[in-house]
Amino acid sequence: MGQQRAEGLIPFTIDLTFEEARRRAEVVAALGPDWDPMAALQDEEAAYALLYSGLDDEQRRVHDMLVAAGVLPGEGPGRAAAP
After folding, report:
1. Is 34 strand, coil or helix?
2. Residue pLDDT tens, the chain, 83 long
3. Is the dihedral of CA 19, 24, 47, 64 positive or negative?
4. What is the pTM of this model?
5. 18 by DSSP, 3-state: which?
6. 3-class SS at 76?
7. What is the CA radius of gyration of the chain?
């Protein structure tokens, strides 16, 4: 039944590779010449450290549990700001 309906359809495909490359180039251009990706990553790391600093024992336990479950990123590879 489904195949009977599909026989009358014309396949439609579109390659968005060029548009994605153009979009990325526009994003980088909008960031401007003063944008420093390493400084941005270091600032992100500092903000992350500040966000989870000062946790009490129960909050630290819950944080560690969420990291172990994969809900929150842990230290090291896999974090956006990891070197």
Report:
1. coil
2. 445 566 788 888 888 999 999 999 999 999 999 999 999 989 988 898 898 889 999 999 999 999 999 898 877 655 554 44
3. positive
4. 0.49
5. helix
6. coil
7. 23
Closest CA to 41 of 29, 33, 53, 49: 49
Contacts of residue 79, defined as CB under 8 A and 6 or more positions apart, other chains included, come to 48, 73
- How far apart CA 46 and CA 31 sit, in angstroms, is 21
Which amino acid makes up residue 7? E
Helix (H) or strand (E) holding 6: helix 2-6
* Length reported for the chain: 83
